[in-house]
Amino acid sequence: MTSPVRWVELALCLVSLPAMVLAIPPPRGSSETLARLHDPVVVSTALLQGSGSTRTAQYRLYRVSPTGVSPVPYQFDARDEDGEIVFSDHASVEDSFDDNDELVFMAKDTGDRVVARNFPAGTEGGFEIEAADPVTGDVGWVYLLRFRGEPPPPSPVVYAHYDTQTAQVRAKYYTIRYYPGSTFFTGMSIEPAAGGSGKNILDRMKLRVNPTLSLLFTTTSPLITEQDFQVRITGVKNGPVRAIRRVHQSIDLGKFFPNVPGGTTYTYYYFSSFMTPSKFSIPWLVLKSLRDFRFTGFSDFRRNVVGMTYWDGANPQGILLTGKGHPPLQTRKDHDWWAMGGRGGTCLHVFLIPPEWRKWGVTRGTVFVDDDAAVDREGPEAEPGEHAAGYSLLHMTNIRHSGSYDLNLATIILPHLYRPGDEVQPLEMLKRPLHVTVRPFSGGRVR
């Protein structure tokens, strides 16, 4: 329920509008088949060439269905030459796009491919954007249309919003609450739109990192918790499709290891999910001095999760939370997801580590507690509280090479109680993103 930056960076959707017709020759297989509910579709604006204009205000995004043509939520996000999101209080940064920027919409908002439809009056042309599932071959389409004059209103739907005053994210399927000025949560509710109760089920997210580092005649073994990270929020953006938060965080391990870990990380909040892809940097000096590494990142839940069920990749049969204790779970079998579901709603968590780590024997262990008598102890052997779930990282000293590694941790809200196989689409979303094809069209024909 947290992200790698919040865990550690070492140690870690109106109306059909009457219009002129753009007749596109009927393609084969023109009905939408794409069924990826949670996936965002991110289109590089470098693909949006040949339209005659890069002014974002001239465009609207539409889907075609048997009932007509309707606008769908979309946004343009500006990035600089280094790929960093451009945050500004001035809308001028997104008045036009260049090759570095992104167009974002949700896969669930795609529709059929145009055969002959009425598009809004004043349409000059635009782009047909095809999103394809690389695993199944299923496809869906949207149309980014350019207008001569004042375009029709965009979709009024907003999927997620980050409130900087309250440190809350409100999305269609969930609400999360941050501890002020931090990267860890102190509340999460799953909304009725996703089958949840709307009640807070999370007490707090916690992190316990205990590296042992030896350099020359000095050995240090600090216990690092979620409260030890120095956090600075360096950017927030809200759009119809996603909200974005950028933070810089670091931690000082002392004289010989200043500001390790450190870096800038983004969290992307969508209608049913939030995710934090990040870089985990291991300096040569740290790798050479690392003698031991203990890590657990977990969510302490409130007592209202009693009666819900826990599942993970190593324990797919499910475990009912009763508060009466449970024998130790399998913690050595590597797995990349766990889920908690019941009357409060269902959330699924995915933690992806680099393939090199798995090759070297690093594994993700299980953290699970269901015991009303459990005590949250501090210190190197700190444990979660009464009801908790998360991950440990095992065998981190097996990492052979220094450098930067890609990690990703995501939370996906399922609109129903977990069923075997529900983890497949979220994993595909993160491991094998949708393929995007952009085709300019004008004069009623795809080019």
Any idea of the CATH class of the largest domain? Mainly Beta
The percentage helix is under 10%
- Poorly predicted ranges (pLDDT <50, ≥5 residues)? 1-29
Query: Strand share of the residues?
Result: 35-45%
Total of DSSP H or I helical runs spanning 4+ residues: 4
Largest sheet: 9 strands, antiparallel
Whole-number mean pLDDT: 85
- The overall number of domains is 2
Which outline best applies?
globular
Strand order of the largest sheet: 17-18-19-20-28-25-24-22-23
Number of strands: 30
Topology:
Elements: H1 4-7, E1 21-23, E2 40-44, E3 59-65, E4 68-71, E5 75-77, E6 102-106, E7 116-118, E8 123-132, E9 139-147, E10 160-163, E11 168-171, E12 174-178, E13 185-190, E14 202-215, E15 218-220, E16 224-225, E17 230-238, E18 243-250, E19 262-269, E20 273-282, H2 284-289, E21 290-301, E22 309-312, E23 315-320, E24 337-342, E25 345-352, H3 355-359, E26 363-370, E27 387-394, E28 403-414, H4 424-431, E29 435-442, E30 445-446
Task: Quickly describe the structure.
With 447 residues, the protein is mainly β.
Provide an overview of this structure.
The chain has about 450 residues and is mainly β. The protein folds into two domains: about 5-10 and about 160-415, Beta-galactosidase, Chain A, domain 5 (Distorted Sandwich); about 20-150 and about 435-445, no CATH class. The protein has four helices and 30 strands. The protein has helices at about 5, 285-290, 355-360, 425-430, and strands at about 20-25, 40-45, 60-65, 70, 75, 100-105, 115-120, 125-130, 140-145, 160-165, 170, 175-180, 185-190, 200-215, 220, 225, 230-240, 245-250, 260-270, 275-280, 290-300, 310, 315-320, 335-340, 345-350, 365-370, 385-395, 405-415, 435-440, 445. The strands form six sheets. The chain has a nine-stranded antiparallel sheet with strand order 17-18-19-20-28-25-24-22-23. A hairpin with a 3-residue loop joins strand 19 and strand 20 (about 275-280). The chain is globular and about 70 Å long. Residues about 1-30 have low confidence and may be disordered.
